[in-house]
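Q: Structure tokens for this one, please.
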Amino acid sequence: MNDDQIARRFDRLETKIDKMAEIMASLAKINEQIAGQNQRLKRHEWRLDENEKKVDDVSETVTKNETAAKTAEKMFWSLWAGLVGFVFWLFRG
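A: Here is the predicted structure, written as tokens:
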């Protein structure tokens, strides 16, 4: 092999090494992006879990309030019926 052939081979090797260096840099950037996305995903999952707990708490409160509202409504209608009956009793005759 003469010097010219060796120089061309080294040039091709340098070109290939440069391409590999660019690819490695791109892979490092992609790896950082994936790590960032994983952190954001974990944060979103945590927030969803917290919101789910809050929704469960609100659901329990609504159930308790629903029971109280039904009881109050029954008491209202009972008092109303009693009042109407009393008025009719006053005007019975």
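A few notes: The chain has a mean pLDDT of 94. Residues 3-90 form the longest helix (88 residues).
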